[in-house]
């Protein structure tokens, strides 16, 4: 055996699980940001070619997305991006705000001036990106605001559950909140939470946190009344 052969470093191959996770993350993001539209057909071969990977991890990623409500399949007929369903808001948001309220309770004793300054800065960013009409960055910053309480709580079980649910509502928010300023109350609602924390009033902070989420449900319900949601078969592109 040559000296070069002895010294050759063996490169570890990328595992199939890793490829599936990458495919899942890329497809989930494209669905959430609207690049893949509601009811758009998802063809395994096309996605495989687009992502530069084999069909197996694409199929596995689609199965995971289906389990999370982002993809729908009709056996032997089609696989599509799940349609926007405003009725999901009343089921999903209460779970999210209940878990966030728990995180706030667990984090409350750790909240200091530095933390309050951090969430104030995030809230100013929310206002800035909203004025710039950058919906994706506005929602991203809104998620950062709420995630701050979860991270501070130190409860590792809350975030994975909320992240999974937020993928579904984030898509809904992007779809519905491309609207005028009359529907944007997030900044003021966050300031109510911040001011309650400055007062060290947990009950008020909890109340305003829940109201913030309920306001979103109300807005989605209000906007969805003006839209007609057709039969899925009629919407498939």
UniProtKB/TrEMBL annotation:
PROSITE patterns named among the record's database cross-references: HTH_GNTR
GO terms of molecular function: DNA-binding transcription factor activity; sequence-specific DNA binding
Keywords of this entry: DNA-binding, Transcription, Transcription regulation
Source taxon at top rank: Bacteria
Keyword hit for Glycoprotein: no
A Pfam family assignment: GntR
Gene3D superfamilies: GntR ligand-binding domain-like, Winged helix-like DNA-binding domain superfamily/Winged helix DNA-binding domain
Domain HTH gntR-type: 17-84
Matching InterPro entries: AsnC-type_HTH_dom (IPR000485), GntR_C (IPR011711), TF_FadR/GntR_C (IPR008920), Tscrpt_reg_HTH_GntR (IPR000524), WH-like_DNA-bd_sf (IPR036388), WH_DNA-bd_sf (IPR036390)
Keyword DNA-binding: yes
Protein known as: GntR family transcriptional regulator
Organism of origin: Anaerococcus obesiensis
